[in-house]
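USER:
I would value a second opinion on how I read folds in token form. Give me a protein, with the fold worked out from its sequence. Write it directly below this note and I will take it from there.

ASSISTANT:
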Amino acid sequence: TKIKLSKMILILLCLSVSSLFANPTRSNNIAFSSNRADSCCLTTNSRVRFEKTITSVGGGWDGRSGVFTVPEAGTYHFSWNTISPTNEELQLFLMVDGKEKANCYAEYEGRASCSGSIVLGLSRNDVVTLRIKRGKMSEDQDEISFNSFTGYMIF
């Protein structure tokens, strides 16, 4: 009958539209957050490494080496906050597979903050790191951390 056929078409249409927005192979549950930069690696040409991992969900993050290996292709957001020592500059880059994608700069004046964020489309197994291009980072030796790095999959 016409009513049954209309209901069936409506159900099929709804299923088709919902499948456009649902991807069962994507979890979107990928995130990491770390702080306390390792004192080994706070100078020019160093990859920033972290002593503390606060959150690590979905794989890919190795804070001790300062490397995020993308576990699943998608769009990711990254943010970082760093600080330079008193009266020293700092230029830091977010790198993907060794290529500079974003940076921040802290001037010589006093202790300065160097922060940034970026949204990137990434492929599986891309490697994301923070690298000090010029200058030094400063890290507090007490409980407070001045440096952090966070990333998560958006979709």
In short: The beta strands are 31-37, 50-57, 61-62, 67-69, 74-83, 90-96, 99-106, 113-122, 127-135, 148-153.
